[in-house]
Amino acid sequence: MARKKPLALYRNIGIIAHIDAGKTTTTERVLYYTGRKHQIVNTHETKDGKGSTTTDYMEQERKRGITIQSAAVTAEWKGHQINVIDTPGHVDFTIEVNRSLRVLDGAVVVFDGVAGVEPQTETNWRLADQYKVPRLCYVNKMDRIGANFAHCVEGIRERLGANALLCQVPLGSSDEFVGMVDMVAGVGYIWASDDKDSTWESVPLEALKDRLSFASTADNAWIADLPKLRQDLLETALALDDDAFERLLNTGEFDPTVLKHCIRKGTVTGELVPVLCGSSYKNKGVQQLLDAVVDYLPYPGENGGIATVDEDGNVVGEQEVTDDAPARALAFKVINDQFGTLTFCRIYSGVIKKGDTLLNVTRGKKERVGRIVEVQADDTKEIDEVRAGDICAFVSMKDTETGDSLSDPAHPALLERMRFPDPVISVSVEPKNRNDVDKLSTALYKMVKADPSLRMEVDQETGQTVLKGMGELHLEITIDRMRTELGVEASMGKPRVSFREAFGKRVEHTYTHKKQTGGSGQFAEVTMIFEPGEPGSGVVFSDEVVGGRVPREYIPAVEHSVKAESKEGQVAGYEVVDFKARLIDGKYHDVDSSALAFEIATRQCFREAQKLSKPKLLEPIMSLEVVTEATYLGDVIGDINRRRGTITEQGQKGTSAFVQGFVPLSEMFGYINFLRSATSGRGNFSMIFDHYQEVPASMVDKLMEKEAK
Asked: Which residues take part in binding GTP (predicted)?
């Protein structure tokens, strides 16, 4: 079957932002205006559990009014197929943004017009930088009191370092927001009403000054500055085309088609980031946003293909996005639902048909493609084949997990993998019914397989099952989803912090392992230097033995023992991180030495050396932002100080005050309860892991005692 639509008419985009910026509301309008649905549901209407937006269909999402897992929907706009992934904004679910951006060709970054650039926006922006994803900025909620377009643009330029190109500026703000100016077309759009089917009037730029007058001086200033703003846009965009730029400077004229081409070129390469504005809730600006997606964001492959790598992750080539190549796909998400396991995949090359066999190159196992479905949030539609550029789901794949590469068995290739954060918090989990132990293990395995930011392990000392995740909400919702999706009821223990340990100073130590009880014995001696490394450097092993003092065949055993022993330190049994282990000398016996003997010697050498180094306990430090009314700011700052936090910045965001700083995670459990009480329910906060930091010596015993309870 031939391709139905040229690749140039596809757009694979994600909608990303801080929590409550309006991603899901925007997605609802996209589906309405593209004809995919005929009724709009708002997130605040779903908390009674009776209705749901298209992409927030889970019970946990409806109850909380937030997005928890990314959802895919497909829409048509002006002949283009737009595959949209609506992602969560809450920090605990950053993994969903991570894996979505990995397979998308472009992104719409939504900003709250009042709050501007928020912490999770910065995190998502850095992820998009990491995966080199072209972006559009959409300043939403211009109808809210305190909306400040200039403040938002300043944040995009200064905090995100983006070369923001103002393709739209607002006409009014808060309750006077009536539309926007399209700087590219050189025309203003004024909506007749807030109704979802309202029409808008196109008004020439020169007529806007006489037509509109606002109570806000800042809003009037935007209209007064339109000629200069448009000239800035023309010069910035046309600078990407020498002939067009020269023509503009000499004659003041330009070709509108060339202007759009230049903006597109700058967006695709990342040199420019177009900025749009609107109010999704008041149904203004979403159609223009769709136009910009079509005009400026790349089609699959326009920005290059995907890197192919070797087993060590080194880039060895690139796979172009084309049908005329061996089938290659990346599994970016696995979910369990009523249809079984759905494995979401982005197809990078070739054609995959129902009944084909693919090789999971990551795991060396073959998978048969039984059914292929196109996903519309929680609904599915069976299709017979998928091609390069498509996003689809394969049903009931047995061994494929997030990040795995699927390939034509005759032409295997590993595609560049995703990078996932380490969990920072853990809880014990046990079944509510003693007879459900096996069911709990199976359910936890499925949840961990679907979410790479979860980890499951069994505590060898207590026998408890421990679940690790990105935050309290993340773990709480995982337990709740096991109940609703897999029918397993579980109880969650008190959250525990994932501490780390580190060497306190450089230590040189020798350990001799000698065991002779008749017959062949065991002998090995190692002399090693352990020294602290830079934060984030990991465990580095260095073989510096000369003269054959330790035979070559025993070196791997020494390195393996160092890395294995680092998993459990001598302070409190936590993982030891960021150090260099140098093997500088040793001794062996022709008969009694073995790899096992050198493993035992290295383990004991590590343990004793760490104790001698005056080891440090490290704790996760979170970047915290609290937004509330100025009246409550003193109480909030005082509480942060009591929690061993440090304040780095405070100021105004629209009509609200904010404070930013760093706080140990161990002090932040149950913080939402304090904040609600202290601010009469008017405060909210966001928190994200930033770095590990040494625990003050006076606090170590107290913290360990607290963790043991």
From this structure: 17-24, 86-90, 140-143
